[in-house]
Write a structure and sequence with these properties.
two-stranded antiparallel sheet
């Protein structure tokens, strides 16, 4: 049926099928000999006309289209790697740190333990980019503000500053005083509750597309979109979202 293009080829005899194939072959050779060149020119002309219709009005429009296409390709590649668990390679595997030997000589030591690598990287980044300690110790605030916002009572004093319960101290330069005054919330400004309620959770996932914004680790967005149809599951998911805000601990995986 595929070669002869006959819908009822199974009803034909072998002789009739061979005759049909022979006729198709002769028609093909005749068209190739007499019409192939003209048909090819006609096809190319049609393709040229189509390509002219697709030409961009400006180079800016063409660059914008190509940029969007590259972004879509990268998003698709990230989703594919995430689904195949090929996105994470383990990060930095080893670093070299300076170690002072008992003889006083400084030698390089290779660290491969993950915790030691993390600690060494943090120390290196702090030494390179921390503007308050490198190259000289220059705290961003002077006393007594430095002790108020970096000591044990830093969190309590920060909330008091936002709520306007800390009086302006004497001896503060006008720029710091202006900044602290701007940090205060206006009396008519309503504080945004930090708790993730089941209603907020349901509203968010009802409007969020399923195929975008998937978490690198944990559950797929389809789980949350399906869970909002169950009040119990939606409440559990909202509680899990509320845990980082109250405890500071982030769940590494969705399965609990």
């Amino acid at each position: 049926m595929k070669k002869t293009k006959l819908p009822d080829a199974w009803k034909k005899t072998t002789v009739e099928l061979e005759m049909a194939l022979r006729n198709d072959r002769q028609e093909y050779l005749h068209a190739k000999k007499n019409h192939a060149v003209s048909w090819r020119k006609e096809f190319l002309n049609v393709q040229v006309k189509k390509s002219k219709k697709k030409q961009w009005t400006s180079r800016k429009a063409r660059d914008h289209f190509l940029r969007l296409r590259r972004m879509k390709q990268r998003e698709e590649a990230r989703r594919r790697r995430r689904a195949q668990s090929k996105g994470s390679t383990g990060g930095l595997q080893a670093i070299q740190v300076e170690e002072t030997l008992p003889t006083g000589q400084v030698d390089l030591r290779i660290l491969t333990d993950r915790r030691q690598v993390e600690q060494g990287s943090m120390q290196e980044n702090r030494a390179r980019y921390d503007q308050t300690r490198s190259p000289y110790t220059t705290p961003p605030m002077d006393e007594p503000l430095y002790s108020m916002f970096t000591g044990a009572d830093a969190e309590r004093n920060s909330h008091a500053l936002l709520e306007g319960r800390i009086p302006m101290l004497e001896g503060i330069d006008p720029y710091t005083k202006s900044f602290l005054e701007q940090c205060r919330f206006h009396q008519g400004h309503s504080m945004i509750p930090m708790e993730v309620s089941p209603a907020d959770h349901t509203y968010f996932w009802s409007r969020n597309p399923e195929n975008k914004g998937s978490e690198p680790h944990g559950l797929h967005n389809g789980h949350f979109k399906a869970g909002i149809h169950s009040p119990m599951v939606a409440q559990c998911d909202a509680l899990f979202r509320h845990i980082p805000l109250t405890t500071g601990f982030v769940l590494t995986t969705g399965g609990i």
